Amino acid sequence: MKLAKLSIKRPVFATMINVVLMVFGLFSLPRLSVDLYPEVDFPVVTVSVIYPGADPESIEQKILDPLEKALNGIGGLKTLSSSAYPNVGRFVLRFNLEKNSDDAAQEVRDKVFAAINTLPQEAETPIVQKFDIGAQPIINLSLNGSLDIAELSRIA
Description:
The protein has a four-stranded antiparallel beta sheet. It is an alpha+beta fold. It has helices at about 1-10, 10-30, 55-70, 100-115, 150-155; strands at about 45-50, 75-85, 90-95, 125-130. It is flat and about 80 Å long. The longest helix has 18 residues, at about 10-30.
């Protein structure tokens, strides 16, 4: 309401304020960086554990449950999801965007390797990786046909 009163009582002053804001905006516009593919760092960490010869139920009981107990206490953790497959258990940890991905990966490594003695002896060393969106393919293409592989590759 005060802005409306000021604009009515002092129209020249209000106009000059608007002109000054527009001039600052025009001078700042060329300095504004625009990137087609901006550098975005999502704090997502994956943990994979290979347990040869194990079924998904064994993976869940012997691998995922002990590690999940260890990983739940990490600060800034937004979601923790786990998947059990034959021979492999996998965690995906998503952190708040304010969390540095390098710090998040290091905290996950520390927690995983602190709990490594709770895993079976046959299980391989857990692999902790940061999710890098730049390393992901832009498109996946799959072709199927009666032609030989060289011809399918040429068509692709």
